Task: inverse folding
C-alpha cells in the first residue's frame, strides 16, 4: 500500500501513466486505485468522477505542449507549437481524440488556447481567418498524430521492410501507381514518413501567410 498521501495531482499523474501503458478505454477507477495502491473509494476524496480525471489528464497534456513563443515570426511560432504538440501526442497516444472534448477545461487548456489565438491574431488575421487557421492547423496536428499512432512501423527501416513485403503480395501491373510510389519513393534512401509532418505543416503555414496577405491587401 502507498504511504505517500494522495492528492489530485498524484491521481492525475497516475492516470496519465496508466493510459500511456494500456490506453484510455481500459482506464477505470478500480485500475487506477490498484495503480496507486489504495481502495477505489479513496480516489473520490480527490476527484469527483472519471470525467474529472479526464479533465485533469487533458490539462496535464496541454502543460507539456510548448506555447507559441512571442519573440519570433508567427509562422515560426506556430511551427514550434505544432512540433511540440506532435511530440507530446506521440508520448500520450490516447490524448489526441480528447484534447478538444472537455466541457470543463483546466487552466493549462484555457491558457494554451488563448496563447494560440493571440499568436494568430497578432499576425494580422481577422477573427474569421483566425478561426480557419486554428481549425486547420489543429486538424492537421491531431490527424497526423492519430495516423502515426496507428502505423504498423516505428522506424524508416521497419517501414521499408513492411513496404517490401506488402508489394510482393499484390500484382504491380494492376496497381502501377502504388508500385511506383513504393519502389521510387518509399524504398529510396532517406525516406522517412515522420518527415512528412514538417512538409505538410510548411504547406499549411505558407497558405495561411498568403491568406493574411490577401486579407490585408483586399
Result:
Amino acid at each position: 500500500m502507498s504511504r505517500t498521501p494522495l492528492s489530485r495531482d498524484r491521481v492525475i499523474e497516475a492516470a496519465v501513466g496508466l493510459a500511456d501503458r494500456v490506453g484510455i478505454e481500459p482506464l477505470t477507477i478500480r485500475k487506477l486505485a490498484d495503480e496507486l495502491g489504495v481502495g477505489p473509494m479513496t480516489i473520490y476524496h480527490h476527484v469527483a468522477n472519471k470525467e474529472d480525471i479526464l479533465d485533469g489528464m487533458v490539462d496535464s497534456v496541454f502543460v507539456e505542449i510548448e506555447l507559441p513563443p512571442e519573440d519570433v515570426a508567427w509562422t515560426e511560432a506556430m511551427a514550434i507549437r505544432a512540433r511540440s504538440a506532435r511530440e507530446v501526442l506521440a508520448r500520450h497516444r490516447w490524448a489526441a481524440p480528447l484534447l478538444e472534448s472537455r466541457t470543463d477545461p483546466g487552466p493549462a487548456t484555457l491558457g494554451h488556447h488563448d496563447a494560440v489565438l493571440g499568436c494568430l491574431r497578432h499576425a494580422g488575421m481577422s477573427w474569421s481567418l483566425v478561426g480557419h487557421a486554428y481549425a486547420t492547423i489543429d486538424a492537421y496536428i491531431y490527424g497526423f498524430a492519430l495516423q502515426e499512432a496507428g502505423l504498423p512501423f516505428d522506424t524508416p527501416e521497419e517501414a521499408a521492410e513492411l513496404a517490401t513485403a506488402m508489394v510482393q503480395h499484390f500484382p504491380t501491373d494492376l496497381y502501377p501507381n502504388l508500385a511506383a510510389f513504393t519502389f521510387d519513393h518509399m524504398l529510396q534512401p532517406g525516406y522517412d514518413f515522420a518527415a512528412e509532418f514538417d512538409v505538410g505543416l510548411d504547406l499549411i503555414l505558407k497558405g495561411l501567410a498568403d491568406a493574411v496577405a490577401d486579407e490585408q491587401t483586399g
Remarks:
- The chain is about 65% helix and 0% strand.
- The CA atoms of residues 210 and 216 lie 10 Å apart.
- The two ends are 67 Å apart (CA to CA).
